[in-house]
């Protein structure tokens, strides 16, 4: 016993024993401010785009609302901060925003060198190219000498450069910060292709005057898992963001929707549903939130499947199949960590 105590004391002195997580600045600031500052894209259909009344719509915008609902019980307690790819990490590092939910690929170097933390995957994607239909390109290897519009500071810039170099092909990059500017340049003929993630290509094309004039090539060249990003200064805040997204996936796995959440909260005998919806308060207590934190998020924006189908699915102008974003029980990659 004495030997174990001595070893434990030595490990603790070296910082090798995990202790209880300390409350961090972001969690406390968000709670006391009463409003979530959420960084989103400056405007991509299906993800975050203000409508004619200035209301932000899209999957990322709704994830911001879901997080606000989990924190405050009110999805309206969110301030949207539109950011370009170049601005996004600086805005998070400086404290201008509390969380970044903006089509951001989770990568090792971003997670280890920026003072930030990649939280959890909320969408699986892959890099692709969109070209004019009359270019008669069916394979990127036919893109020799093309001008490709890209956004600087993105993984897509690197993926495109690496792919052309590895295939001994030439291309001319045109770097523009706003993806909407790239879309306009493609339509106007100032570039021959756009290189970015396939979901973004579909979102951009849905806004074109003549979307049928453009083709998204089927080949994919990278793994692009999207997810929220927070500062590396607050374990409690990190956990709230991670488990709120996970709760939406768990809700779909359990058949909990925005329509039936209230009924299930009152009468479900399923212990997993009772924990998720706060009838059993164990999960809320673990996050230092109201027991109904996940219930409030699900009721506000729906489960993960509802979220995807509403903003990106086949019945939307973007028209994407779930693919990799199906639940693991349906052959996809979406998988909630056990919530118990």
From TrEMBL:
InterPro entries: Bact_solute-bind_prot3 (IPR051455), Solute-binding_3/MltF_N (IPR001638)
Pfam families associated with the record: SBP_bac_3 (PF00497)
Signal sequence region: 1-23
Keywords per UniProt: Signal, Transport
PANTHER family: AMINO ACID ABC TRANSPORTER PERMEASE, AMINO-ACID ABC TRANSPORTER-BINDING PROTEIN YHDW-RELATED
Family, similarity comment: Belongs to the bacterial solute-binding protein 3 family.
Protein name as annotated: Amino acid ABC transporter substrate-binding protein
């Amino acid at each position: 016993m004495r030997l174990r105590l001595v070893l434990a004391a030595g490990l603790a002195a070296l910082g090798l024993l995990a202790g209880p997580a300390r409350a961090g600045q972001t969690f406390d600031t968000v709670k006391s401010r009463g409003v979530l500052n959420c960084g989103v894209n400056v405007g991509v259909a299906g993800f975050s785009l203000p409508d004619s009344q200035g209301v932000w719509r899209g999957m990322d915008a709704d994830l911001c609302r879901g997080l606000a609902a989990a924190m405050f019980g009110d999805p309206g307690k969110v301030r949207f901060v539109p950011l370009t790819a170049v601005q996004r990490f600086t805005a998070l590092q400086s404290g201008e925003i509390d969380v970044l939910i903006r089509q951001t690929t989770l990568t090792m170097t971003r997670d280890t060198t920026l003072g930030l933390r990649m939280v959890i995957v909320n969408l699986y994607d892959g890099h692709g190219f969109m070209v004019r239909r009359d270019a008669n390109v069916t394979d990127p290897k036919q893109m020799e000498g093309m001008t490709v519009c890209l956004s600087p500071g993105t993984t897509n810039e690197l993926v495109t450069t690496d792919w052309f170099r590895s295939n001994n092909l030439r291309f001319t990059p045109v770097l523009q910060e706003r993806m909407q500017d790239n879309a306009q340049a493609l339509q106007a003929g100032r570039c021959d292709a756009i290189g970015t993630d396939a979901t973004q290509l579909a979102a951009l094309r849905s806004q074109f005057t003549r979307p049928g004039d453009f083709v998204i090539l089927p080949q994919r060249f990278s793994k692009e898992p999207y997810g929220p990003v927070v500062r590396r200064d607050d374990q409690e805040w990190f956990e709230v963001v991670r488990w709120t997204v996970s709760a939406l996936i768990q809700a779909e796995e359990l058949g909990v929707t925005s329509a039936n959440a209230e009924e299930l909260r009152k009468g479900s005998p399923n212990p997993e549903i009772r924990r998720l919806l706060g009838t059993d308060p164990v999960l809320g207590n673990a996050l230092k939130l109201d027991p109904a934190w996940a219930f409030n998020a699900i009721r506000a924006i729906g489960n993960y499947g509802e979220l995807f189908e509403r903003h990106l699915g086949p019945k939307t102008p973007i028209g994407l199949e779930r693919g990799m974003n199906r639940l693991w029980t349906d052959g996809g990659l979406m998988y909630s960590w056990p919530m118990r």
